[in-house]
Protein 1
Amino acid sequence: EVQLQASGGGLVRPGDSLRLSCTASGFTFGMYDMSWVRQVPGRGPESVSHITGGGVITYYADSVKGRFTISRDNAKTMLYLQMNSLKPEDTAMYYCVSGGNWGQGTLVTVSS
């Protein structure tokens, strides 16, 4: 059974940083691309960042480019999202996603 559990969210002020983590299990982690997707209530999901199985190729939404960094540790089956210079518009529930499987999200709230 595929299990994905995101953690690391919280309430921060604009300009602060957070590091999200995702613990993965139940599949051969290193063989799968992974994504971070965020969603605000009442709006559709937004793909924030994506990384290939080997970690060589990454993608970022224009809204987070230059501020967020995705990474993975295949030995530990962990996915990360380093979020710097956070803005109020980054407020959302963040999910790690792989192969159509969504884990439990972690809430990020950016507010002064």
Protein 2
Amino acid sequence: QVQLQESGPGLVKPSQTLSLTCTVSGETITADSFGWHWIRQSPEKKLEWMGLIDPRGITAYSRLLKNRIAISRDTSKNQLTLQLTSVTPDDTAVYYCVHGYHYWGQGTQVTVSS
């Protein structure tokens, strides 16, 4: 069974860069399968797709975030990484790592505040 676990700082200051890691078990992130997504949920419960990295390492990003977002991976650790630059309080959300929309991590709360 695929399991995903997000980790990272719970509090980030405005203008800083948010970095989150998703550790995957039960499937290799390079396996010929579905993509690996980052999705966030705002305090108002709105879900927002942020981007993905596919098993070949090809990325795609939301056009709303493309100037600030980067998704990468460490195949030796079977981990994915999300970086979001120049954060504002509007980036406060629960961040989820998702595989093929079938498997979701438990999510990690990130608050942007000074």
Protein 3
Amino acid sequence: EVQLQASGGGLVQSGGSLRLSCTASGFDFSNYVMGWFRQAPGKGREFVAAVGRNIYDKYYAESVKGRFTISRSVAENTLSLQMNSLKPEDTGRYYCRIGQYWGQGTQVTVSS
């Protein structure tokens, strides 16, 4: 059974940091593009960051460039998102995606 388990969300003040993790099980994801998306209340799901099969191929939404860093560990079957200098507009539910699979999401709330 394919499972993506996201964790690391929480409540943080503006300017703070959080680190999200997504652990995959049930398949070999080493050949997949992996990414993070988020959805704020009342809005659609939007792209945040992605990392290709080559760990040096990384892509970011303009709104998070310079603040967020995506990384992957094939050995640990884990995708991570380090989020620094968080802003209230970063609030939302964050979802990991690997290929066509989605995790259940983890809530991030940034207070002003």
Protein 4
Amino acid sequence: VQLVESGGGLVQAGGSLNVSCVAFDDGSMVYDMGWYRQSPGKGREAVAISGWDGERINYLDSVKGRFAISRDFTKKTVHLQMNSLKPEGTATYYCYADTSPGTWGQGIQVTVSS
């Protein structure tokens, strides 16, 4: 499996961004997928995880009600819609697929200016 992210960029606080991840996979994407982020000097944290069926979803407490993860099994993509962004959301966002072993995307930068 290979993961390729797109989207991200620079936005003012309160704004919205969407990041997307395409899974180049010959199979049927029967694994959990999600988004992690890492800020300078901090560890990588799980932001939003979608179960293999697209129905078991978990969010980082600080993004609940503002972020939404969704999967398109036909297009083999996973999206993260980020609304009401805050400066602390500035980070490199990584797509992750819970394959065995796990697979990471290359990371995409999201910068939220105050």
